[in-house]
Amino acid sequence: RVARLFEVDANHKTRLDEATAGQIVLLAGLRWATTGDTLCAPGHPLWLERIETREPVLGLAIEPQSSADEEKLLEALDKLQQEDPTLRVEEDPETGQRVLRGMGELHLQIAGERLRREFNVNIRVGNPDVVTRETIAGSAEAGSLFHRLIEQPDGKKLEMKAGARVAVAPMLRGAGIAIDAAPRVRPEGVELNPAQRDAAAGGAEDALASGPATGAALQDLAVRVLEVELFGASSSPSALRVAVAEATRKALAQAGGLVLRPIMNTEVVAPESDVGAVLGDLQSRRAVIRDTTTLGEMTIIHCDCALDRLLGYITDLRGMTRGRGQFTMTFDRFDIA
Questions:
Q1: In degrees rounded to 5, what are phi and psi of residue 125?
Q2: DSSP secondary-structure letter at 117?
Q3: Do 248 and 288 reside in the same domain of the chain?
Q4: Which DSSP letter does residue 218 get?
Q5: Residue 42 CB burial class (10 angstroms; 0-12, 13-18, ≥19)
Q6: Residue 242, class by beta-carbon neighbours within 10 Å (0-12 exposed, 13-18 middle, 19+ buried)?
Q7: What does the radius of gyration of the chain's CA atoms come to, in whole angstroms?
Q8: Does residue 44 lie within any of the structural domains?
Q9: How far is CA 166 from the centre of its chain?
Q10: d(Cα 145, Cα 250) in Å, to the nearest integer?
C-alpha cells in the first residue's frame, strides 16, 4: 500500500495528493515492490517488460566491522538487492566469506558508501575478485560405465549400473549452452522412459556447473549424449544421470578448458597532448583499440579490455593526464583475453 506520494526534483521532495500520466514520482510504503515490478489498478491488470539486467562481473568480500552489526548488514544488503537487481550477495563455499558482486569498481564503491551513509553499517572489504567463465578449446568424445552396489538399511544391496558416451564441441561466443539428449540406446529395441530421458539431460547439466580449467561455470559449448547402455532394472534414472555426468566431465577434460574473462566496452577521454601515453598504457593492458575521435582539445578512445586489467585504472589515468582524464566502461561479453 502506498503511504505517501512525492514529486522529486534533484534531492528535494514535494508531497503530492495525486499523480497523472507522464509524471515521475516517488512512492513511499511499497514494502514488497522491487525494481522491475509493474504497479496497476486491480481492475486493469498490466504487465510491462522488466528491465534487462546483466550478471555481475566483480566481487568484494564484505563483513561488518562489529559482529553486533551482522544482522543489520544482512537487512541492508537485502534492501540494496531489491533496489538494484545487478547487485548480488553470495557466500563463498570454500572460505565462508560473504561476497558482494556488482558491475564494476565504482558500482561496488557506491554500494559500500550507501551501507555506511544510509544504513549506518561500517564494513570491511577485501580485494576485488573478477568473475570468470570457461569454455572448451576443442571437440572431444568420452564414455563412462557407472556401477555401484549400495547397501540398504534392511541389509539388501541395491545395484546401480548404466553406461553413456558423450561428445562436446565449442560454439561461438554468446551462443550459450546446447544439450542434445536423444541418444542411441543399447541393447537394441530398448527405449528410454521419460524419467531416464530427463536424467540423461540432467547429467549433462550437472557436469557443466564447473569447467576443467578453474572450476568456473561453462558456456558457449554443445553437449551431445551419443549413446547410453542400460542394464535392466539396475539402470535407474539416478544411475543414468551419474553415468552421463561422468562421461561429460571426461569429454570436457579431454577438450581442454579456456578461461573467459569479462570484456568491457571502454571509452577513455584524455587531452590530445597525452594520447600517446594513454594509448601505450592501454596496449600494455592488452586492450583492443577500436577507434579514436578528436573533440576540441580532448581525444576519445574506444577500446575493449578485460576487466581485471582495468582495476585501479582511474588512478593511473589521472596520473598520466594530470587529473584531466576520465573513462567509462560497460560489460560487453565473456571472452578470451
A1: -125, 150
A2: H
A3: no
A4: B
A5: exposed
A6: buried
A7: 27
A8: no
A9: 27
A10: 12
Q: How far is Cα 99 from Cα 176, in angstroms, rounded to an integer? A: 25
Does any domain span residue 240?
yes
How far from the centroid of its chain's Cα atoms is residue 273's Cα? 39
Q: Between vectors from CA 291 to CA 286 and to CA 294, what angle results, nearest 5°?
A: 120
Quick check: is 285 in a domain? yes
Chunk the chain into consecutive blocks of 10 residues (it has 337) and report each block's average pLDDT, rounded to whole numbers: 84 87 84 81 85 84 88 91 89 80 90 92 87 94 93 84 96 93 91 93 94 92 95 93 96 95 95 94 95 93 94 91 92 91
Residues 17 and 112 in one domain: no
The letter for the amino acid at 184 is R
Output the pLDDT for position 229: 94
Peptide bond between residue 187 and the one before it cis (omega within 30 degrees of 0): yes
246, 178: one domain: yes
Residue 262 sits at φ, ψ, to 5 deg, of: -65, 125
Greatest Cα pair distance, the chain, in angstroms, is 85
Domain count, the chain: 4
The answer to whether residues 243 and 151 belong to one domain is yes
Report d(CA 74, CA 63) in Å as an integer.
Answer: 10
| H helix or E strand, kind and range, residue 331 | strand 326-335
